[in-house]
């Protein structure tokens, strides 16, 4: 009988209890012992573990930590906005680009959608498992016709000796690659459709090669649940006559340049101004 159940919140003893996980699946190994599939509660990491390495957490205390985390994140975003205003780096008047956000996590999706709404960006959100994203992304692009699409959820490197240049070493990266390929069949022009794809430790190079503008994770590190929305907010609110560098976007995120990379990308704000601000 399993010591843990689907929905339990746990930490891993071998990793210093550093990340809260929720158990999403239970399978037995060849010896008949349960192996638990884990998804990060506040980060976009997926992993698996035996029961001996797990400690169950008090949901009430976890929720308190979660609220503190979200509050700090929101405060940091507000501080960034105030800093831009202080130095005269205000958003140009006009209509921001629209965003289609496809996420395997309903909770993360809600957090990101709230961020878009706070930034007054039109957005469309759908919860879809990573494995199903390649089969639905084109239909959703045709339905909503967004300027920007986010393809995200959870990911992670598999245990053991892994080849960082093989999709087989990643838990869900192949689905992000396939989804980007399908999205580019809809719109090949990277200046007309901006694509962000990936999650924690994702195969960055393969996702970029498939046609994404931005992806995670160049340094195979964990990324924050809000990082994809921070990247796409920047794209949506940058004048369409200007280009965004990967560095300028990555520095706005918690994970930085080791977590987010990409290519120079045109903004998607349709400005009312006749000339660029210098």
UniProtKB/TrEMBL annotation:
The record's section on InterPro entries has: Peptidase_U57
* Superkingdom of origin organism: Bacteria
Family matches, as Pfam families: Peptidase_U57
Name of the molecule in the record: Peptidase U57 YabG
């Amino acid at each position: 009988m399993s010591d843990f159940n689907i929905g339990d919140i746990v930490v891993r003893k071998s990793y210093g209890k550093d990340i809260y996980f929720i158990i999403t699946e239970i399978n037995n190994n060849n010896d008949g012992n349960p192996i638990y599939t884990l998804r990060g509660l506040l980060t976009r990491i997926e992993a698996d573990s035996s029961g001996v390495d797990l400690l169950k957490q008090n949901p009430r205390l976890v929720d308190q930590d979660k609220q503190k985390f979200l509050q700090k994140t929101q405060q940091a975003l507000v501080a960034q906005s105030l800093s831009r205003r202080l130095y005269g780096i205000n958003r140009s008047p006009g209509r921001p680009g629209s965003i289609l956000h496809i996420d395997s996590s309903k909770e993360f999706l809600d957090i990101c959608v709230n961020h878009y709404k706070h930034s007054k960006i039109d957005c469309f959100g759908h919860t879809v498992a990573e494995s199903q994203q390649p089969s639905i992304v084109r239909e959703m692009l045709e339905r909503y016709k967004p300027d920007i699409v986010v393809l995200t959820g959870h990911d992670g490197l598999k245990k053991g000796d892994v080849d960082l240049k093989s999709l087989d070493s990643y838990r869900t990266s192949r689905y992000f690659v396939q989804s980007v390929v399908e999205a580019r069949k809809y719109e090949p022009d990277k200046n007309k459709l901006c694509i962000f794809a990936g999650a924690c430790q994702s195969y960055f190079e393969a996702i970029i090669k498939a046609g994404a503008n931005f992806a995670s994770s160049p340094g195979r590190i964990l990324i924050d649940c809000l990082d994809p929305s921070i990247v796409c907010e920047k794209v949506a609110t940058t004048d369409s006559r200007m280009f965004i560098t990967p560095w300028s976007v990555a520095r706005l995120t918690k994970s930085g340049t080791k977590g987010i990379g990409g290519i120079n990308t045109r903004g998607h704000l349709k400005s009312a101004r006749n000339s660029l601000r210098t």
